[in-house]
Amino acid sequence: MGDDVRNKLSTALNQLDTWIEKEKFQGWDPYDALNSPILKTLSFENRLAGIIWVQLLKRLPVNLRSLLRVPKGYNPKGMGLFLSSYLRKFQMTGDKTHLEKVDFFSQWLRENISPGYSGACWGYNFDWPNRVFYAPAGVPTVVTTGFIGIFLLELARAAQNHPELVQEDFTPAELACSACDFVLLDLNRSSFAEDEICFSYTPMDTSKVHNANLLGGQLLAEVFQFGGQKDASLAENVLRCTRYSVRRQRSDGAWIYGEDGNNAWVDNFHTGYVLLSLRKLVNV
Questions:
Q1: Which helix (DSSP H) or strand (DSSP E) does residue 54 occupy?
Q2: Is there a single domain that holds both residue 62 and residue 149?
Q3: Are residues 52 and 168 in the same domain?
Q4: For residue range 219-243, what is the model confidence (pLDDT) as tens digits?
Q5: Which of 172, 140, 142, 139 is nearest to 157 (CA)?
Q6: How far apart are CA 17 and CA 181, in angstroms?
């Protein structure tokens, strides 16, 4: 990479950081239409009506969120991503100001766990109507929980060499282990053979989505590798959910998004997520 390209990239990243921090890590989401009190009322809590409003607001060339009173907010998945990125910034630079951000994100995640489940878990900060089910804001998903659990393990590994990264009363590895309890005890399971399973997206559905299934498996595998839960049942669940998705790869190398009839489309985005999880699972 030439110096000119490197300088332009550095400038762009610094401008992005400045904007994100100015916004105090809060923002809109492409799928947050029903955070509008107006659109939520007009959806009548009907899944199909909700989908229409979500897709309309997502696809409009003009952002009408301010007009429709959609508030900017903290997205739990985004907070996990910020935790991971500022942790890596600290590891790269040693800049102590990044430690404050790491503490802020980890504390926020601890304080905003979805209540009422077997383990630590997180959902989206907006109602999410989709082709299969309607998930109200806060209903935990395996995707959000999986990402956050994996990022917490990143923090736990880094804290082994930099104990200043975590507060004395906080053990990120324990929180990641708790997230495994959510995956194993709260999510529904589908299978068509005794040696395979597919984890549902949330506790309220039975959808079979490959990238979500494997992300749940990746969390279990990384916790197993870290040493938080060295038991055969954890490893067996990893193998079973991996078998389910690997066996359903198409002849062209892709995966359909989900095995439910109205989720049977193919895109490079979600196939890419499947491949990333499989790469991690191979190395665990």
A1: helix 47-59
A2: no
A3: no
A4: 999 999 897 455 778 899 999 999 9
A5: 172
A6: 35
